[in-house]
Amino acid sequence: xxxxxxxxxxxxGFLFGNLFGALLGVFxxxxxxxxxxxxxxxxxxxxxxxxxxxxRQEEFFKAAFAVMGHLAKAxxxxxxxEIELASTMMDRMNLHGEQRRAAQDAFREGKGxxxxxxxxxxxxxxxAGGRFDLMQFFLELQISAAFADGEIHPSERQVxxxxxxxxxxxxxxxxxxxxxxxxxxxxxxxxxGGHAGGGQSHQSGGSWQQASTADQLSDAYKVLGVDSSAxxxxxxxxxxxxxxxxxxxxxxxxGLPPEMMNVAKEKAQEIQNAYDLIxxxxxF
Length: 284
Description:
Layout: H1 4-40, H2 53-73, H3 80-92, H4 97-110, H5 117-127, H6 132-146, H7 154-167, H8 171-190, H9 200-204, H10 206-224, H11 232-246, H12 248-254, H13 261-282
Helix pairs in contact: 2-4, 2-5, 2-6, 2-7, 5-7, 6-7, 6-8, 8-10, 10-13, 11-13, 12-13
């Protein structure tokens, strides 16, 4: 408790100005104590009292790959496929040299039996400065990594719930994002604009193509997190909200590591594609 300044100020104020001087001294002492409290809390990071922006970004980056490693280990033995999926994520971020080695080291650390998940997530919240957009990006990154093989194992889902809780998200919020990611996976691999299946649409006739387009449209609504019965106003509102939360430049300004910029751009493009498909189908 910082009260030394108030005591000292009140004492000397009383000596030189009786009651009025004591009150003035207490006020000045309070300002002194307040400044000390802010310094001790680390809010003067610009003056060397806390981690720099680059240090927070590095913390966020390493934690992301460490939690991916922990998630990969959730099913038991880490398979070659899971290692390849982690490598794919590194490729998406264009990681090479020292950056790639740092990601690999963090991934291996996360596979350890004594990996302190809760402590790491606390550090993520600190490095993200409590910003919702950054913590949401971190959670969605883990969901995307877990879903890279097309499905979520029950053990992975259990870990994801722990990750969500550690970042301050509810189980309902996680499940909503899982549904959105599942739809996004189908939407991406189905191809945008009715190109799913290549020549198969010609062999099976127009009925297959219509079914494929209908499925894509259904997934597009889920990518935006709205019901297929939503009107144009609701769809636009959901689209704008998601784009505001996932805009790459805004995320970078809030502290997203530059290595993750490409992934942020992919997510924003995914949202844009889903919205464009709905807009085209519904004519607004």
